[in-house]
């Protein structure tokens, strides 16, 4: 379930407390790669029913969540867009819709605290930063939850079979004789200092938790697993399904498979298993074969767009937890849509106080789709479907006649699978017609109730901004 050290070089080089400044962030981006903040989804889970199991969802996540520094070898270590130190990068991820995080820690300050590391490289963040920023986010967005996988990173300890000192690709704790008992004691202290932040059944230290529902998890961090440097599972923490018995059957993490075709085949197979199961499956899109093969950026450039295409194909309705490197906004949005039709609610416009509306609550094909004061009625309840349709009253949001010209009206019509009924999330909160590449638009940025909606060349105006449930 865990990535061992990236490198195993013989030359000792201590990099234990300083993050490097050598540049290695990707120089390019696409919708699927390295464009995380082009869209914002801070409240997407609020549209899910409270009784839904977390295992029934698709949950976008980041592998090695705060790996934004690389010491002297940045391309080998950096795995995420850099949006700032002290867990500011976590803020950006959560606002973009990420809900599963992968936190790697080194014991510091003489066996009293956790610092966030990627192997030997300090990531300019501490565990207090992570918990404080997560708490602030959940306080501001109480309909959400965050899944956390916590991992003791330092396999250089003598108690872990290491030399007792750090080297490239291997950190050592302070002191380098840390044990499981030490790590759990430190973690328990954090839990006590952040009362109510963690979903309590996952942090008892004595028993593991059944899979929670969305309602039970809201407002909390759900600890999924707590593992040591060699991948050993720390009993009494996390979710029963992912920490006991044959838990490995639910996790695809072939982190040394750097042939993109083979890696994607493994990932696709695991996501397909999730789609037909009641258990929570976890799929890592990440791999790292540097310095002699593909690095995290190389793999993300290949894996992320393939995954978007797979999700958009309509082959699945939910795919479990998917963790990736350098996610793009289209990948996050595609995962958010994969909720087996559970994601429903109003679609507010960027025009203040206005919502996407089925005019006069019509139920017949050809019904007008308009802008109206947000009122919470059934005419403004839309369901986001995995096939990229947006539905109300059993009908689909449809570009009339499959038109592609600016000014073509949208309507409600019998769902038929055409690309004129498929919509993707675009930058700045836009909804883009798959058929034409044009955006759902309130003509002239009208504020009048009953303004009939159209498609138009995409811009950045409030009249093309929509917040999906």
For the structure shown, list the relevant keywords:
469 residues, TIM Barrel, five-stranded mixed β-sheet, alpha/beta, 21 strands
Could you state the order of secondary-structure elements as H and E?
EHHEEEHEHHEHEHEHEHEEEEEEEEEEEE
**CATH level-3 fold name of the largest domain:** TIM Barrel
Total individual domains: 2
Q: Please state how the strands of the largest beta sheet are arranged side by side.
A: 4-3-2-5-6
Note the gap between the termini. 32 Å
> Main beta sheet: strand number and arrangement?
5 strands, mixed
Give the averaged pLDDT, no decimals.
94
CATH class of the largest domain: Alpha Beta
Number of strands: 21
The outline comes out as elongated
Q: What gyration radius follows from the Cα positions, in whole Å?
A: 23 Å
Strand content: 15-25%
In which range does the helix fraction lie?
Answer: 10-25%
What is the CATH architecture descriptor of the largest domain? Alpha-Beta Barrel
Low-confidence stretches: 1-22
Structural class: alpha/beta
Number of helices: 9
Q: In CATH, what is the homologous superfamily of the largest domain?
A: Phosphatidylinositol (PI) phosphodiesterase
């Amino acid at each position: 379930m865990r990535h061992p050290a990236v490198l195993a070089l013989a030359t000792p080089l201590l990099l234990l407390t300083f993050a490097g400044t050598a540049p290695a962030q990707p120089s390019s981006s696409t919708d699927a790669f390295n464009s995380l903040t082009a869209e914002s989804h801070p409240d997407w889970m609020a549209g899910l029913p409270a009784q839904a199991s977390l295992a029934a969802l698709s949950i976008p996540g980041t592998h090695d969540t705060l790996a934004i520094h690389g010491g002297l070898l940045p391309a080998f270590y950096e795995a995420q867009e850099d949006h700032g130190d002290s867990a500011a990068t976590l803020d950006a991820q959560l606002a973009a819709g990420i809900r599963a995080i992968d936190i790697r820690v080194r014991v510091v300050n003489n066996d009293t605290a956790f610092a966030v590391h990627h192997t030997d490289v300090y990531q300019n963040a501490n565990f207090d930063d992570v918990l404080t920023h997560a708490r602030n986010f959940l306080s501001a967005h109480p309909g959400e939850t965050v899944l956390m996988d916590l991992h003791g990173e330092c396999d250089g300890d003598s108690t872990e079979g290491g030399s007792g000192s750090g080297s490239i690709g291997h950190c050592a704790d302070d002191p380098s004789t840390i044990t499981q008992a030490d790590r759990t004691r430190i973690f328990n202290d954090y839990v006590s200092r952040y009362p109510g932040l963690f979903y309590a059944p996952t942090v008892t230290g004595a028993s593991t938790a059944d899979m929670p529902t969305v309602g039970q998890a809201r407002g909390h961090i759900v600890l999924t697993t707590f593992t040591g440097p060699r991948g050993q599972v720390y009993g009494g923490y996390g979710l029963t399904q992912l920490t006991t018995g044959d838990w490995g059957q639910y996790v695809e993490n072939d982190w040394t498979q750097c042939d993109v075709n083979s890696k994607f085949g493994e990932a696709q197979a695991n996501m397909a298993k999730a789609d037909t199961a009641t258990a929570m499956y976890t799929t890592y899109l990440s791999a790292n074969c540097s310095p002699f093969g593909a690095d995290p950026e190389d793999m993300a450039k290949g894996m992320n767009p393939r995954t978007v295409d797979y999700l958009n194909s309509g082959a699945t309705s939910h795919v479990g937890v998917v963790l990736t490197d350098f996610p793009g906004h289209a990948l996050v949005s595609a995962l958010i849509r994969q909720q087996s039709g559970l994601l429903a609610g109003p679609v507010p416009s960027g025009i203040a106080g206005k919502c996407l509306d089925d005019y006069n609550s019509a139920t017949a094909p050809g019904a007008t789709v308009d802008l109206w004061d947000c009122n919470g009625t059934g005419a403004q309840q839309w369901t986001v479907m995995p096939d990229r349709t947006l539905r109300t009253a059993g009908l689909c949001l449809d570009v009339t006649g499959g038109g592609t010209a600016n000014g073509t009206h949208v309507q409600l019509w019998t769902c038929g699978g055409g690309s004129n009924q498929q919509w993707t999330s675009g930058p700045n909160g836009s909804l883009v017609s798959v058929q034409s590449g044009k955006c759902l638009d309130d003509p002239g940025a009208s504020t009048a109730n009953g303004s009939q909606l159209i498609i138009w060349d995409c811009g950045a105006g409030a009249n093309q901004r929509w917040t999906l449930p």
